[in-house]
Amino acid sequence: MKSLRILLGAWTWRGTTLVVLSAPAGAALALVVRARGGSVASAVLAAALLVTGLSAVLLRRAVAARDRALGAVQEELDRLELGQRADRARLHEIDATVAGIASAQQLLSAGIAAERYDALAAMVQAEVQRLQRLLAERAPERRRAVDLDDVVGQIVLAHVARGRRVTWEPSGLRALARGDDVAEVVNVLLENAAVHGGPGRVRVRVAPDATGAGVSVTVSDQGPGVPPELRERLFDWGVSRPGSPGQGIGLHAAAELAHQMGGRLELRPGVRGATFALHLPAAPVEVSRREHVAQAS
């Protein structure tokens, strides 16, 4: 063992023994051991045991210091990975938003009916503003009463402009949430349905929860559904079905945003296709009324 030293010499005078042992880097360790009535061999053994004990203490301290250093490195790596994931999720949403704006702009340039032109122009303006906020990396706004018809309707229109078959009806419901985050979650779910749901029509529905304390936004497609082996891990980072062109980013980011808003995102079991539900707390009546007054003024 490295803790045992090589005896270099031992001298005794009037019951006191000087023991010299080897030390790291060629140095010598001198120990004065009182061994009245004992032999030099006993003194050497006592010194060796003492050095062994001290070495064990130093070794434990070194191991603890190494563990602390490794822990600090791991924490920094985790922080960097979280930052990288956030950046990739933001880029994922930016790509989808730009695609919707570009498709709508092409329709506007091609010439369409006046009533549809006004709706598309309003959608483009709203999405451009949301894109600017995404690029600015601002701190998340506080939760407020969000008009789900306004937010969901704009995202549905952006996907319809891209040639996708999406049905939706206004509900008149409001949620206590963040408008941009709701838009991003719905956008992710519609992108997921477009990629995995096949050519069939996608249905978006906004309805109150059974308890009345919340509202849900569901997105249902008519595709093959989610394989059973993926359902438990579907919202984990990097999880996607075999052969999928996706990177397993969108659903993870959407689930995180739902959690941050005090809600949740779930996959509902269904006979056919996949149905995702975003659950959010309903906006209290007094909050909704106060938001209406603020907007009117």
From TrEMBL:
The segment(s) forming the Histidine kinase domain are: 89-284
By its UniProt entry, which InterPro entries does this protein fall under?
2C_sensor_his_kinase, HATPase_C_sf, HATPase_dom, His_kinase_dom, Sig_transdc_His_kin-like_C
Question: SMART domains in the record, alphabetically?
Answer: HATPase_c (SM00387)
Indicate the transmembrane segments per the record: 40-59
In Pfam terms, one family for this protein is: HATPase_c
Query: Does Flavoprotein appear among the keywords?
Result: no
Record keywords, A-Z: Kinase, Membrane, Phosphoprotein, Transferase, Transmembrane, Transmembrane helix, Two-component regulatory system
What domain of life does the native source organism fall in? Bacteria
Reactions listed under catalytic activity: ATP + protein L-histidine = ADP + protein N-phospho-L-histidine
Under Enzyme Commission nomenclature, its number is 2.7.13.3
Coiled coil ranges: none
Keyword Magnesium applies: no
Q: Name one GO biological process term.
A: phosphorelay signal transduction system
Q: Name one GO molecular function term.
A: protein histidine kinase activity
PANTHER family, alphabetized: SENSOR PROTEIN CREC
Task: Supply the name of the protein.
Answer: histidine kinase
Species whose genome carries this gene:
Nocardioides anomalus
